[in-house]
Request: fold
Amino acid sequence: MDRESIDKLTTYIEENLRTTVNSGMSFIDPNNFKRKLSSKQNHVVFGRRGSGKSSLSSSLKKSKDHVFIYINLENFKDISFPNIILHVLKSGFSQLRKELKRPFYKPSWSAYMSRKKLLKAINTLEEDLEKPDNQTFEQRNKEAKAIEIGGEGKGASSSVNAGAKSGKEKELTTSFAKDKLETLKLSIDKYQEFFDELSEAFNNKPIYLVLDDMYFLKKDIQPCFIDYIHRLSKGTNLYIKVATIKHRSLLYQQFEDSYIGTEIGHDIHDLDLDYTLDKFEDLKNFMKQLLTHASSESGANLNIDDLFAGDSFSQLCLASGGVPRDFLSLFLKVASQCLVRDEKINKVAVTDATIASIGNKMASIAKDSDNESEILEAYLNEIKSFVYTRHRTNAFLVAKQDLEQYKQVRQALKELVDMRLLHIIDSNTSCAPSDGRRYEAYIIDVGLYENSRPRSFNQVEPGITDSQGRKDKIRSSPKLNFEQMQYNLQDKDLNNLCETDNV
Reply:
Protein backbone atom coordinates (compact mmCIF):
# COMPACT_ATOMS: atom_id res chain seq x y z
CA MET A 1 0.00 0.00 0.00
CA ASP A 2 1.32 3.44 -0.98
CA ARG A 3 2.28 5.11 2.32
CA GLU A 4 2.76 8.51 0.69
CA SER A 5 -0.76 8.46 -0.77
CA ILE A 6 -2.22 7.41 2.59
CA ASP A 7 -0.42 10.34 4.25
CA LYS A 8 -1.80 12.75 1.64
CA LEU A 9 -5.34 11.53 2.24
CA THR A 10 -5.22 11.57 6.05
CA THR A 11 -3.51 14.98 6.15
CA TYR A 12 -6.16 16.46 3.85
CA ILE A 13 -8.98 15.07 6.02
CA GLU A 14 -7.35 16.33 9.23
CA GLU A 15 -6.99 19.83 7.80
CA ASN A 16 -10.55 20.00 6.49
CA LEU A 17 -12.48 17.95 9.01
CA ARG A 18 -14.17 20.96 10.61
CA THR A 19 -15.81 23.49 8.34
CA THR A 20 -15.65 27.21 8.96
CA VAL A 21 -16.95 30.01 6.81
CA ASN A 22 -13.50 30.28 5.19
CA SER A 23 -12.28 26.68 5.07
CA GLY A 24 -13.30 23.05 5.11
CA MET A 25 -14.08 20.18 2.76
CA SER A 26 -16.40 20.88 -0.15
CA PHE A 27 -20.01 19.89 0.40
CA ILE A 28 -20.93 16.68 -1.43
CA ASP A 29 -24.34 17.41 -2.88
CA PRO A 30 -26.19 14.41 -4.38
CA ASN A 31 -29.57 15.98 -3.47
CA ASN A 32 -28.91 19.36 -5.09
CA PHE A 33 -29.22 21.23 -1.78
CA LYS A 34 -26.90 24.04 -2.93
CA ARG A 35 -29.29 25.08 -5.67
CA LYS A 36 -32.25 24.99 -3.30
CA LEU A 37 -30.48 26.98 -0.60
CA SER A 38 -29.36 29.65 -3.06
CA SER A 39 -32.94 30.49 -4.05
CA LYS A 40 -34.64 33.64 -2.77
CA GLN A 41 -36.53 31.93 0.04
CA ASN A 42 -36.11 31.61 3.79
CA HIS A 43 -34.56 28.23 4.67
CA VAL A 44 -33.75 26.14 7.72
CA VAL A 45 -31.07 23.46 7.26
CA PHE A 46 -31.51 20.55 9.65
CA GLY A 47 -28.69 18.15 10.43
CA ARG A 48 -26.89 16.49 13.31
CA ARG A 49 -23.46 17.65 14.43
CA GLY A 50 -21.03 16.94 11.61
CA SER A 51 -23.69 16.43 8.94
CA GLY A 52 -22.44 19.30 6.76
CA LYS A 53 -24.72 22.20 7.80
CA SER A 54 -21.88 24.71 8.02
CA SER A 55 -20.30 23.40 4.83
CA LEU A 56 -23.56 23.79 2.91
CA SER A 57 -24.28 27.23 4.39
CA SER A 58 -20.76 28.46 3.67
CA SER A 59 -21.10 27.42 0.03
CA LEU A 60 -23.34 30.48 -0.39
CA LYS A 61 -20.29 32.69 0.06
CA LYS A 62 -18.84 31.58 -3.27
CA SER A 63 -21.62 33.12 -5.36
CA LYS A 64 -21.69 36.76 -6.48
CA ASP A 65 -25.44 36.63 -7.14
CA HIS A 66 -26.22 37.69 -3.57
CA VAL A 67 -24.67 39.38 -0.54
CA PHE A 68 -23.50 36.91 2.12
CA ILE A 69 -23.66 37.57 5.88
CA TYR A 70 -22.55 34.79 8.25
CA ILE A 71 -23.24 34.75 11.99
CA ASN A 72 -22.39 31.81 14.25
CA LEU A 73 -24.94 31.94 17.05
CA GLU A 74 -22.74 29.82 19.32
CA ASN A 75 -20.83 33.05 19.96
CA PHE A 76 -23.98 34.54 21.52
CA LYS A 77 -25.34 31.50 23.37
CA ASP A 78 -24.89 33.15 26.78
CA ILE A 79 -26.41 36.49 25.73
CA SER A 80 -29.83 37.35 27.13
CA PHE A 81 -32.86 38.07 25.00
CA PRO A 82 -33.45 40.60 23.42
CA ASN A 83 -29.78 41.68 23.54
CA ILE A 84 -28.93 38.80 21.23
CA ILE A 85 -30.97 40.52 18.50
CA LEU A 86 -28.92 43.68 18.97
CA HIS A 87 -25.69 41.65 18.67
CA VAL A 88 -26.90 39.94 15.49
CA LEU A 89 -27.92 43.25 13.93
CA LYS A 90 -24.63 44.85 14.90
CA SER A 91 -22.59 41.95 13.46
CA GLY A 92 -24.69 41.90 10.29
CA PHE A 93 -24.40 45.66 9.74
CA SER A 94 -20.63 45.51 10.33
CA GLN A 95 -20.24 42.82 7.66
CA LEU A 96 -22.42 44.75 5.23
CA ARG A 97 -20.35 47.89 5.76
CA LYS A 98 -17.15 45.98 4.94
CA GLU A 99 -18.82 44.42 1.93
CA LEU A 100 -19.73 47.85 0.53
CA LYS A 101 -16.04 48.81 0.57
CA ARG A 102 -15.05 45.94 -1.70
CA PRO A 103 -13.76 46.96 -5.15
CA PHE A 104 -16.41 44.71 -6.67
CA TYR A 105 -19.00 47.42 -6.01
CA LYS A 106 -18.55 50.65 -7.92
CA PRO A 107 -18.47 53.80 -5.76
CA SER A 108 -21.85 55.52 -5.76
CA TRP A 109 -23.74 58.07 -3.75
CA SER A 110 -26.11 55.31 -2.61
CA ALA A 111 -23.20 53.17 -1.34
CA TYR A 112 -21.60 56.17 0.36
CA MET A 113 -24.82 57.07 2.20
CA SER A 114 -25.44 53.44 3.13
CA ARG A 115 -21.98 53.18 4.72
CA LYS A 116 -22.71 56.32 6.75
CA LYS A 117 -26.09 55.00 7.84
CA LEU A 118 -24.58 51.62 8.73
CA LEU A 119 -21.95 53.26 10.94
CA LYS A 120 -24.63 55.30 12.68
CA ALA A 121 -26.79 52.19 13.19
CA ILE A 122 -23.82 50.24 14.60
CA ASN A 123 -23.05 53.04 17.08
CA THR A 124 -26.72 53.18 18.14
CA LEU A 125 -26.82 49.42 18.68
CA GLU A 126 -23.67 49.62 20.81
CA GLU A 127 -25.32 52.29 22.96
CA ASP A 128 -28.51 50.22 23.27
CA LEU A 129 -26.51 47.19 24.41
CA GLU A 130 -25.29 49.19 27.40
CA LYS A 131 -28.84 49.96 28.51
CA PRO A 132 -30.91 47.71 30.81
CA ASP A 133 -33.74 45.69 29.30
CA ASN A 134 -36.28 47.86 31.13
CA GLN A 135 -35.86 51.51 32.08
CA THR A 136 -38.02 53.99 33.94
CA PHE A 137 -37.94 57.57 32.78
CA GLU A 138 -39.32 60.71 34.44
CA GLN A 139 -40.69 63.59 32.44
CA ARG A 140 -41.16 66.99 34.13
CA ASN A 141 -43.69 69.53 32.87
CA LYS A 142 -44.38 73.00 34.27
CA GLU A 143 -47.98 74.12 34.57
CA ALA A 144 -49.09 77.64 35.56
CA LYS A 145 -52.28 78.44 37.47
CA ALA A 146 -55.07 80.08 35.44
CA ILE A 147 -55.14 83.91 35.40
CA GLU A 148 -58.34 85.41 36.78
CA ILE A 149 -59.65 88.51 34.94
CA GLY A 150 -62.47 90.54 36.43
CA GLY A 151 -64.34 93.78 35.38
CA GLU A 152 -67.67 95.57 35.36
CA GLY A 153 -69.24 97.94 32.83
CA LYS A 154 -72.40 99.22 31.34
CA GLY A 155 -72.93 98.57 27.66
CA ALA A 156 -70.42 98.81 24.92
CA SER A 157 -68.98 102.06 26.04
CA SER A 158 -68.50 101.14 29.59
CA SER A 159 -65.05 101.04 31.04
CA VAL A 160 -63.51 97.80 32.12
CA ASN A 161 -61.59 97.42 35.34
CA ALA A 162 -59.41 94.37 34.95
CA GLY A 163 -57.31 92.66 37.56
CA ALA A 164 -55.24 89.50 37.50
CA LYS A 165 -54.31 87.03 40.18
CA SER A 166 -50.96 85.60 39.31
CA GLY A 167 -50.06 82.17 40.64
CA LYS A 168 -46.86 80.16 41.01
CA GLU A 169 -45.99 77.61 38.35
CA LYS A 170 -46.60 73.97 39.34
CA GLU A 171 -44.19 71.19 38.24
CA LEU A 172 -45.72 67.87 37.29
CA THR A 173 -43.63 64.67 37.12
CA THR A 174 -44.73 61.76 34.92
CA SER A 175 -43.04 58.36 35.09
CA PHE A 176 -43.07 55.93 32.14
CA ALA A 177 -41.31 52.66 31.36
CA LYS A 178 -39.28 51.93 28.25
CA ASP A 179 -38.91 48.28 27.25
CA LYS A 180 -35.98 47.31 24.98
CA LEU A 181 -37.91 44.58 23.19
CA GLU A 182 -40.88 46.86 22.51
CA THR A 183 -38.48 49.46 21.13
CA LEU A 184 -37.00 46.83 18.81
CA LYS A 185 -40.46 45.83 17.62
CA LEU A 186 -41.32 49.45 16.88
CA SER A 187 -38.12 49.67 14.82
CA ILE A 188 -39.06 46.84 12.43
CA ASP A 189 -40.48 49.17 9.75
CA LYS A 190 -37.34 51.31 9.90
CA TYR A 191 -35.05 48.29 9.56
CA GLN A 192 -37.09 46.88 6.67
CA GLU A 193 -36.69 50.15 4.76
CA PHE A 194 -32.99 50.12 5.60
CA PHE A 195 -32.47 46.61 4.21
CA ASP A 196 -34.17 47.64 0.98
CA GLU A 197 -31.84 50.65 0.73
CA LEU A 198 -28.86 48.37 1.34
CA SER A 199 -29.99 45.94 -1.34
CA GLU A 200 -30.20 48.87 -3.75
CA ALA A 201 -26.65 49.90 -2.83
CA PHE A 202 -25.58 46.32 -3.66
CA ASN A 203 -26.99 46.65 -7.19
CA ASN A 204 -30.35 45.21 -6.05
CA LYS A 205 -28.83 41.90 -4.99
CA PRO A 206 -30.63 39.87 -2.32
CA ILE A 207 -29.00 39.75 1.12
CA TYR A 208 -28.62 36.24 2.61
CA LEU A 209 -28.31 36.17 6.39
CA VAL A 210 -26.84 32.82 7.53
CA LEU A 211 -27.57 32.04 11.18
CA ASP A 212 -25.45 28.98 11.98
CA ASP A 213 -25.82 26.66 15.00
CA MET A 214 -29.07 28.12 16.30
CA TYR A 215 -29.50 25.11 18.60
CA PHE A 216 -26.97 26.68 20.98
CA LEU A 217 -29.56 29.28 21.98
CA LYS A 218 -31.84 28.35 24.85
CA LYS A 219 -35.02 26.72 23.56
CA ASP A 220 -37.33 29.17 25.31
CA ILE A 221 -35.92 32.15 23.38
CA GLN A 222 -35.50 30.45 19.98
CA PRO A 223 -39.05 31.08 18.67
CA CYS A 224 -38.95 34.73 19.84
CA PHE A 225 -35.55 35.23 18.23
CA ILE A 226 -36.41 33.70 14.86
CA ASP A 227 -39.80 35.44 14.89
CA TYR A 228 -38.15 38.87 15.09
CA ILE A 229 -35.55 38.10 12.40
CA HIS A 230 -38.28 36.73 10.13
CA ARG A 231 -40.38 39.87 10.61
CA LEU A 232 -37.39 41.94 9.53
CA SER A 233 -37.20 39.99 6.27
CA LYS A 234 -40.88 40.24 5.32
CA GLY A 235 -41.40 42.16 2.10
CA THR A 236 -37.69 42.93 1.76
CA ASN A 237 -34.74 41.59 -0.20
CA LEU A 238 -33.37 40.00 2.99
CA TYR A 239 -33.56 36.19 3.29
CA ILE A 240 -32.67 34.11 6.33
CA LYS A 241 -30.80 30.81 6.17
CA VAL A 242 -30.82 28.99 9.53
CA ALA A 243 -28.64 25.94 10.29
CA THR A 244 -29.54 23.88 13.33
CA ILE A 245 -30.27 20.44 14.86
CA LYS A 246 -33.92 19.52 14.36
CA HIS A 247 -34.97 18.33 17.80
CA ARG A 248 -32.73 20.76 19.66
CA SER A 249 -34.62 23.64 18.03
CA LEU A 250 -37.97 25.30 18.59
CA LEU A 251 -38.85 27.42 15.57
CA TYR A 252 -42.58 27.69 16.11
CA GLN A 253 -45.02 27.87 19.02
CA GLN A 254 -48.79 27.79 18.61
CA PHE A 255 -51.11 29.48 21.09
CA GLU A 256 -54.91 29.66 21.24
CA ASP A 257 -55.26 32.74 19.08
CA SER A 258 -51.76 33.31 17.69
CA TYR A 259 -48.34 31.84 17.06
CA ILE A 260 -44.76 32.97 17.34
CA GLY A 261 -41.79 31.92 15.25
CA THR A 262 -41.61 30.54 11.71
CA GLU A 263 -43.85 27.77 10.40
CA ILE A 264 -42.16 25.30 8.09
CA GLY A 265 -43.74 25.22 4.67
CA HIS A 266 -45.20 28.69 5.09
CA ASP A 267 -42.65 31.11 6.54
CA ILE A 268 -39.57 28.99 5.97
CA HIS A 269 -38.58 25.92 3.92
CA ASP A 270 -36.58 23.03 5.36
CA LEU A 271 -33.64 21.05 4.00
CA ASP A 272 -32.75 17.87 5.91
CA LEU A 273 -29.11 16.72 5.58
CA ASP A 274 -29.39 13.67 7.81
CA TYR A 275 -28.66 10.31 6.23
CA THR A 276 -30.47 7.74 8.35
CA LEU A 277 -29.64 4.07 8.55
CA ASP A 278 -33.04 3.02 7.20
CA LYS A 279 -31.62 3.78 3.74
CA PHE A 280 -28.33 2.05 4.35
CA GLU A 281 -27.32 1.50 0.72
CA ASP A 282 -27.81 5.20 -0.04
CA LEU A 283 -25.74 6.01 3.02
CA LYS A 284 -22.88 3.74 1.96
CA ASN A 285 -22.87 5.21 -1.53
CA PHE A 286 -22.70 8.73 -0.10
CA MET A 287 -19.84 7.89 2.26
CA LYS A 288 -17.91 6.28 -0.56
CA GLN A 289 -18.38 9.47 -2.63
CA LEU A 290 -17.15 11.51 0.34
CA LEU A 291 -13.98 9.45 0.76
CA THR A 292 -13.36 9.31 -3.00
CA HIS A 293 -13.70 13.10 -3.21
CA ALA A 294 -11.19 13.53 -0.36
CA SER A 295 -8.79 11.14 -2.09
CA SER A 296 -9.05 13.11 -5.33
CA GLU A 297 -8.74 16.55 -3.71
CA SER A 298 -5.70 15.47 -1.69
CA GLY A 299 -3.94 14.11 -4.75
CA ALA A 300 -3.81 10.61 -3.22
CA ASN A 301 -6.05 9.09 -5.93
CA LEU A 302 -6.54 5.85 -4.01
CA ASN A 303 -9.04 3.14 -4.85
CA ILE A 304 -11.29 3.23 -1.79
CA ASP A 305 -12.27 -0.45 -2.08
CA ASP A 306 -8.59 -1.41 -1.67
CA LEU A 307 -8.49 0.15 1.82
CA PHE A 308 -11.09 -2.12 3.45
CA ALA A 309 -11.26 -5.81 4.27
CA GLY A 310 -14.50 -7.81 4.43
CA ASP A 311 -17.50 -5.81 5.62
CA SER A 312 -15.42 -3.23 7.50
CA PHE A 313 -16.65 -0.40 5.26
CA SER A 314 -20.26 -1.24 6.16
CA GLN A 315 -19.26 -1.33 9.84
CA LEU A 316 -17.65 2.11 9.46
CA CYS A 317 -20.86 3.48 7.92
CA LEU A 318 -22.90 1.88 10.70
CA ALA A 319 -20.58 3.20 13.41
CA SER A 320 -20.78 6.72 11.98
CA GLY A 321 -24.56 6.71 12.27
CA GLY A 322 -24.75 8.40 8.88
CA VAL A 323 -22.83 11.51 10.01
CA PRO A 324 -20.04 12.53 7.57
CA ARG A 325 -17.72 14.07 10.17
CA ASP A 326 -18.03 11.02 12.44
CA PHE A 327 -17.29 8.81 9.44
CA LEU A 328 -14.15 10.77 8.55
CA SER A 329 -13.00 10.99 12.18
CA LEU A 330 -13.29 7.24 12.61
CA PHE A 331 -11.57 6.66 9.28
CA LEU A 332 -8.59 8.71 10.51
CA LYS A 333 -8.36 6.58 13.65
CA VAL A 334 -8.52 3.23 11.89
CA ALA A 335 -6.22 4.45 9.11
CA SER A 336 -3.55 5.25 11.68
CA GLN A 337 -3.99 1.78 13.22
CA CYS A 338 -4.19 -0.33 10.06
CA LEU A 339 -3.16 1.43 6.87
CA VAL A 340 0.14 2.76 8.21
CA ARG A 341 1.05 -0.83 9.06
CA ASP A 342 0.28 -1.83 5.49
CA GLU A 343 -2.88 -3.64 6.63
CA LYS A 344 -6.39 -3.20 5.34
CA ILE A 345 -9.00 -1.74 7.68
CA ASN A 346 -10.92 -4.51 9.49
CA LYS A 347 -14.24 -4.63 11.35
CA VAL A 348 -12.74 -5.08 14.83
CA ALA A 349 -10.51 -2.02 14.39
CA VAL A 350 -13.56 0.05 13.40
CA THR A 351 -15.52 -1.08 16.46
CA ASP A 352 -12.57 -0.46 18.81
CA ALA A 353 -12.08 3.06 17.42
CA THR A 354 -15.80 3.80 17.82
CA ILE A 355 -15.83 2.65 21.45
CA ALA A 356 -12.75 4.77 22.16
CA SER A 357 -14.52 7.83 20.72
CA ILE A 358 -17.79 7.58 22.66
CA GLY A 359 -16.59 10.08 25.27
CA ASN A 360 -16.84 12.89 22.73
CA LYS A 361 -20.47 12.08 22.00
CA MET A 362 -21.33 11.81 25.69
CA ALA A 363 -19.71 15.18 26.29
CA SER A 364 -22.01 16.70 23.67
CA ILE A 365 -25.03 15.86 25.88
CA ALA A 366 -23.84 18.33 28.50
CA LYS A 367 -22.70 20.89 25.93
CA ASP A 368 -25.75 20.86 23.67
CA SER A 369 -28.65 20.04 25.97
CA ASP A 370 -28.39 22.74 28.65
CA ASN A 371 -30.48 21.68 31.69
CA GLU A 372 -31.76 18.50 29.98
CA SER A 373 -28.48 16.57 30.12
CA GLU A 374 -29.21 14.62 33.32
CA ILE A 375 -32.54 13.23 32.15
CA LEU A 376 -31.20 12.40 28.68
CA GLU A 377 -28.32 10.43 30.18
CA ALA A 378 -30.82 8.63 32.43
CA TYR A 379 -32.95 7.64 29.43
CA LEU A 380 -29.87 6.49 27.51
CA ASN A 381 -28.69 4.33 30.43
CA GLU A 382 -32.14 2.73 30.70
CA ILE A 383 -32.19 1.93 27.00
CA LYS A 384 -28.66 0.54 26.98
CA SER A 385 -29.38 -1.62 30.03
CA PHE A 386 -32.54 -3.00 28.41
CA VAL A 387 -31.12 -3.58 24.93
CA TYR A 388 -27.43 -4.35 25.36
CA THR A 389 -27.22 -5.88 28.85
CA ARG A 390 -30.53 -7.75 29.14
CA HIS A 391 -31.26 -8.72 25.55
CA ARG A 392 -27.67 -8.83 24.20
CA THR A 393 -28.45 -7.02 20.98
CA ASN A 394 -28.12 -3.52 19.57
CA ALA A 395 -31.67 -3.10 18.21
CA PHE A 396 -35.05 -2.38 19.78
CA LEU A 397 -38.61 -1.56 18.73
CA VAL A 398 -40.79 1.33 19.83
CA ALA A 399 -44.57 1.20 19.32
CA LYS A 400 -45.90 4.24 17.46
CA GLN A 401 -48.93 4.22 19.75
CA ASP A 402 -46.65 4.56 22.79
CA LEU A 403 -44.81 7.48 21.16
CA GLU A 404 -48.11 9.38 21.06
CA GLN A 405 -48.92 8.60 24.69
CA TYR A 406 -45.48 9.14 26.26
CA LYS A 407 -44.38 12.46 24.81
CA GLN A 408 -41.40 12.91 27.14
CA VAL A 409 -39.94 9.56 26.06
CA ARG A 410 -40.58 10.48 22.44
CA GLN A 411 -38.67 13.74 22.89
CA ALA A 412 -35.79 11.91 24.61
CA LEU A 413 -35.54 9.46 21.69
CA LYS A 414 -35.51 12.33 19.17
CA GLU A 415 -32.76 14.16 21.01
CA LEU A 416 -30.62 11.05 21.55
CA VAL A 417 -30.87 10.39 17.80
CA ASP A 418 -29.82 13.98 17.12
CA MET A 419 -26.86 13.46 19.45
CA ARG A 420 -25.82 10.37 17.43
CA LEU A 421 -26.22 8.00 20.38
CA LEU A 422 -29.25 6.21 18.94
CA HIS A 423 -29.97 5.61 15.26
CA ILE A 424 -33.26 4.85 13.54
CA ILE A 425 -33.09 1.93 11.11
CA ASP A 426 -36.75 1.59 10.16
CA SER A 427 -39.40 4.26 10.62
CA ASN A 428 -42.37 1.98 9.95
CA THR A 429 -42.28 -1.76 10.60
CA SER A 430 -44.19 -4.52 12.35
CA CYS A 431 -43.00 -6.89 15.04
CA ALA A 432 -42.53 -10.66 14.80
CA PRO A 433 -44.87 -12.29 15.50
CA SER A 434 -47.21 -9.50 14.41
CA ASP A 435 -49.54 -7.94 16.96
CA GLY A 436 -51.26 -5.56 14.54
CA ARG A 437 -49.33 -2.50 15.73
CA ARG A 438 -46.74 -0.42 13.88
CA TYR A 439 -43.25 0.23 15.24
CA GLU A 440 -40.12 2.27 14.76
CA ALA A 441 -36.84 0.34 14.94
CA TYR A 442 -33.66 1.77 16.50
CA ILE A 443 -30.13 0.65 17.27
CA ILE A 444 -27.79 1.92 19.94
CA ASP A 445 -24.53 3.50 18.80
CA VAL A 446 -21.63 1.09 18.29
CA GLY A 447 -19.60 3.24 20.68
CA LEU A 448 -21.88 2.10 23.53
CA TYR A 449 -20.65 -1.49 23.21
CA GLU A 450 -18.45 -2.58 26.11
CA ASN A 451 -15.90 -4.18 23.80
CA SER A 452 -15.42 -5.02 20.13
CA ARG A 453 -16.23 -8.74 20.61
CA PRO A 454 -19.17 -8.89 23.03
CA ARG A 455 -20.17 -12.45 24.01
CA SER A 456 -23.54 -13.94 23.10
CA PHE A 457 -24.34 -10.73 21.24
CA ASN A 458 -26.49 -10.36 18.13
CA GLN A 459 -25.72 -7.23 16.09
CA VAL A 460 -28.66 -6.33 13.89
CA GLU A 461 -27.52 -4.51 10.78
CA PRO A 462 -29.78 -2.18 8.79
CA GLY A 463 -31.00 -3.29 5.39
CA ILE A 464 -30.42 -7.00 6.04
CA THR A 465 -33.25 -9.17 4.65
CA ASP A 466 -33.84 -12.88 4.14
CA SER A 467 -34.33 -14.59 0.77
CA GLN A 468 -37.93 -13.37 0.67
CA GLY A 469 -37.02 -9.77 1.42
CA ARG A 470 -38.26 -9.88 5.02
CA LYS A 471 -36.54 -7.98 7.83
CA ASP A 472 -37.24 -10.58 10.50
CA LYS A 473 -34.10 -9.79 12.50
CA ILE A 474 -35.32 -6.24 12.96
CA ARG A 475 -38.95 -7.28 13.52
CA SER A 476 -37.99 -9.73 16.28
CA SER A 477 -36.01 -7.14 18.25
CA PRO A 478 -37.11 -6.51 21.88
CA LYS A 479 -39.87 -3.93 22.47
CA LEU A 480 -39.07 -0.99 24.69
CA ASN A 481 -41.56 -0.74 27.59
CA PHE A 482 -42.28 2.96 28.09
CA GLU A 483 -44.35 2.44 31.24
CA GLN A 484 -41.55 0.52 32.91
CA MET A 485 -39.02 3.12 31.84
CA GLN A 486 -41.12 5.95 33.30
CA TYR A 487 -41.41 4.00 36.56
CA ASN A 488 -37.63 3.47 36.72
CA LEU A 489 -37.10 7.20 36.19
CA GLN A 490 -39.78 8.44 38.56
CA ASP A 491 -37.21 10.23 40.73
CA LYS A 492 -36.11 12.35 37.75
CA ASP A 493 -37.69 15.63 36.71
CA LEU A 494 -39.05 14.53 33.35
CA ASN A 495 -40.62 17.94 32.75
CA ASN A 496 -37.15 19.31 32.01
CA LEU A 497 -37.48 18.03 28.45
CA CYS A 498 -38.95 20.73 26.24
CA GLU A 499 -40.80 19.11 23.34
CA THR A 500 -40.20 20.37 19.81
CA ASP A 501 -42.44 19.99 16.81
CA ASN A 502 -40.94 21.79 13.82
CA VAL A 503 -42.54 19.74 11.07
Notes: The first strand starts at residue 43 and ends at 46. The CA atoms of residues 50 and 496 lie 26 Å apart.
